[in-house]
Amino acid sequence: LKMLNKTVNPGLKKMINAVIKDKKNISEYDIGFIIAPRLNAAGRIKNAESSFNLLSKEGDILDKIINDLNSFNEERKNIQKDILNEIIENNDFDKIVKEKKIFIDKSKNWNEGVLGIVASDIVKRFNIPAILFKEIEGKLKGSGRSTNKFDLYGNLGSLGNLFENFGGHRQACGISMNVLNFKTFYNKMIEIAAKNIKDRDTQKKFVYDLELNFRDINKKILNEINLLKPFGAGNPEPSFTTENCTIIDFYYLMKERHVRLKLKQSG
């Protein structure tokens, strides 16, 4: 983070000036949710040439490259949203969660580059693993994501004879195989998931680190939380709960995907 805040790379500096609000204090959030998605979007939608050019070129052409990356990222979001909506509309997830404990599907029409993100969206929404495949000329290439309760990579390993290529880790994987193996893979994976994932594992749980009253919130505790940065996998941002609150006001953020509340606490 310190190195990125001091970067001399012309393209990165231009990107930071264009999309980051606090340009002097770039955070892990800025990297994970603002800069990296734009760099990745080109490869997901077209190819990685624009991202490479951003990091290797100088001068006025950088403005066009950044505009292209922004456009790719918006297109990626729209494609991701369309695939997710299609999946939700065409499947009974109440039944899938209850009986199969995993979602597996394929399509000739999906964009392969966003399937991992869509699978992550399904995991977040329904709390079950998801594996999605793009079908091309008799071959399947797919991405899987899982909950922290189910070792996706470990359980897929027992089906390795069905795959042409396979890799990943506990909560994510990439798979390629012949489409003729899909039915066998589908049935065996559902059998494995149903055996290993319990009903209680699919129930959403909201875990918090500490109960915090409004009177305890001050600059000192905020500074102490900041000392725990950078947050991410293995070091999640702390979460707090509180009680006896009244909503005074609220407004939506990010096209109504998030809401910010103004609260008053009694007592």
Quick structural overview:
This protein has 267 residues and is an alpha/beta fold. The chain is 44% helix and 19% strand.
Coarse shape: globular
- Biggest sheet strand line-up: 1-2-3-5-4
> How many E strands?
9
The CATH architecture of the largest domain would be: Roll
- What portion of residues belong to β-strands? 15-25%
Give the integer mean of the pLDDT values.
Answer: 93
Low-confidence stretches: none
Keywords: Hydrolase
Domain RecJ OB: 208-266
Organism: marine sediment metagenome
Protein name: DHHA1 domain-containing protein
Give a written overview of the molecule:
- This protein has 267 residues and is α/β, with parallel strands linked by helices.
- The protein has three domains: 2-80, no CATH class; 92-202, Diaminopimelate Epimerase, Chain A, domain 1 (Roll), CATH 3.10.310; 210-265, no CATH class.
- The chain is built from ten helices and nine strands.
- The strands form three sheets. The protein has a five-stranded mixed β-sheet.
- Helix 5 (61-89) packs across helix 7.
- The longest helix has 29 residues, at 61-89.
